[in-house]
């Protein structure tokens, strides 16, 4: 700042950890609403900090309105989805640094790019000094709210941007041009599609036989490993009458792979006109697997699945709707069986309906 202005420049520098601790304290004082603008780097810094993410979750439980504008790209899609569970998110290009506003204050934090030490060596992110700017002037805070509303209005819904990115990723995978005939392998593409998931996998299995084919493949193992990355998997399996033993065995096998797989598995009795296994990845791509008696590297029992892929919005949406309907029906069936079980238990006691009464005569007691 030029010296002839008569104003002294104020620089308040903190390390990244110190800045995040200050952000945590200011977030904690939020009472009604929180507006956040972050670029890619700061989004990663905040989401990777478990304390910040836990606090955002608690703010949501307190019904505090949280709005976030972030520049969403392929590298931070997973981070954005994690925040979408606790806040409203929109996308905007060209964002820099980190700023936020609550009803009391405004905060801005910036880490200079390519910052070098005195010896000319590049400083690691955690060692860099973040320039910290904090204002609690009411008029300034209100002015920032006015500017944020314009940015929010002109930005793109996060789901729309994420779908665009994911479809682009899937197109690259599905349109992969092999270097040779040996490189042509639908199984490899299948694994790449599933392992690219950042949010949710839906698996519809129309028979127990198909489940065992699927179980014997390495694909289910890959899905179970992805659950630690905030990916959720829901499995629906058609079960015939009298297959209780098979049901218990399936749950046991799933529990061996992952407790979450067992918890998020439902069984349904309604027959559906489908003979293939279907997988929906992030509501973007539909994978259909039809096992045939041919050689394959996918499964241990060498059944070769015929695999097809689709990113057609109508097909994906239709398959997702069918899955959701069957999932709801399976929940109803499970609740009905639980009620019937309790009814049978109490009915076995030959309990009778009886009424009991008592005469509360306080006057007689007081006269004694």
Fold topology:
Elements: E1 13-15, H1 16-28, E2 33-38, H2 40-48, H3 50-61, E3 65-70, H4 77-84, E4 88-91, E5 98-102, E6 106-110, E7 129-135, H5 138-154, E8 156-157, H6 158-174, H7 186-195, E9 200-205, H8 208-215, H9 219-226, E10 232-238, H10 244-257, H11 259-263, E11 265-268, E12 277-281, E13 285-292, E14 304-310, H12 313-347, H13 362-367
Parallel strand pairs: 2-3, 3-4, 9-10, 10-11
Antiparallel strand pairs: 1-7, 2-5, 4-8, 5-6, 6-7, 9-12, 12-13, 13-14
Helix pairs in contact: 1-3, 2-4
Uncertain regions spanning at least 5 consecutive residues: 115-123, 178-184, 294-302
Task: Count every helix, treating DSSP H or I runs of 4 or more residues as helices.
Answer: 13
Q: What would CATH call the class of the largest domain?
A: Alpha Beta
What is the domain total for the residues? 2
Under CATH, the topology of the largest domain is which?
Answer: Endonuclease, Chain A
Strand adjacency order, main sheet: 1-7-6-5-2-3-4-8
Question: Biggest sheet: strands, sense, closure?
Answer: 8 strands, mixed
Give your account of this protein's structure.
The structure is a single chain. The protein is an alpha/beta fold and 368 residues long. It is 44% helix and 20% strand. The protein is built from 13 helices and 14 strands. Helix 1 (16-28) runs parallel beside helix 3 (50-61). It is globular and about 70 Å long.
